[in-house]
Amino acid sequence: MRIAIVSDAWRPQINGVVRTIETIVRLLRAEGHEIEVFGPDRFRTLPCPTYPEIRLSLFPSARLAHMLKLFAPDAIHLVTEGPLGWAARGFCLKRGIPFTSAYHTRFPEYVHARIRLPLAWSYALVRRFHAPSAAVLVVARSIREELAAHGFRNLAPWSRGVDIAAFAPQPREELQEARPIWLYAGRLAIEKNIKAFLDLDLPGTKWVVGSGPQQRELRRRYLDARFFGAVDSAELAYRYAQADCFVFPSRTDTFGLVMVEALASGVPVAAYPVPGPLDIVTTPKVGALGDDLRAACLAAVGCEPADCRAHAETFTWAECAHQFRDILQPIPREKWQPLKRRVAPSAAS
After folding, report:
1. What structural domains does the chain harbor?
2. DSSP string spanning 282-295?
3. Which end of the chain is more exposed for a tag (fewer CB within 10 A), N or C?
4. Tens digit of each residue's pLDDT (9 = 90 or more) over 64-83
């Protein structure tokens, strides 16, 4: 099958969406599928306001239409509700081409956290984006229920996995920092609510891994925390394995892949009882949830690493990839005739 994946989130961004796409692409290619990812790296871009690390494609419709016609895919999937997502949506609707989409990010809550735009306005826009989709893939059951309450239709479950070889327990080293070590890993942005973690009065040491628009402010304000910035996969795995508890303060994520990576490393999770954590920390053996995040941290830190690891092993990338493959909507071949099938350009001119 020839599969076109259109995503405003793509390399060099490092986040859960990109890691999910990269993994399913690798697994499905290994099964013989031909996949092209149409991301911002193929277009002229400009930095996203308030978040310059994210590049937004500039007027991508004509170029994207040209590339999709050349590739002539058997199925099209839209990952994000950004400029590329809207351009691909318009392309498909104009030609009567079926497509699937995914709800990776609680976009209304993110926008509200940044500019206080009413949630109802943002939900109306996102609902309109997904309305023509044959299936809207959503990872967490709690998020699917939330979207259904907002009038979304055609919602379909889509699991996540974890690389249990890359993220695994390691011997705890004697470190200069006092234990327990409380770890946060992810984007340093306002919607991640990192200050809720850094403001906690906890014994031991706080580690922060990741980069983002809040990085400079947080480093300046929280001198007692240790910031590592963006790290490679090997160091990330090491930081997970050396931590005593992973703290996930976000209230706006749809899932939180980092929590599963921490569990695979034998590290329990502390978080608020909101979508994402509610779908991952489903037993007190692997962590604790509570509106009092400090109490959740202190309760989680005593969990057994073996229980955390066993729980993480129930999340498999193979299932994630196969769910994605099986829900794709086939495009009738006559939609592309008499176009000649060629390889799409790999980069913007």
Report:
1. 2-161+317-335 (3.40.50.2000), 181-312 (3.40.50.2000)
2. -STTSEEE-SSHHH
3. C
4. 999 999 999 999 999 999 99
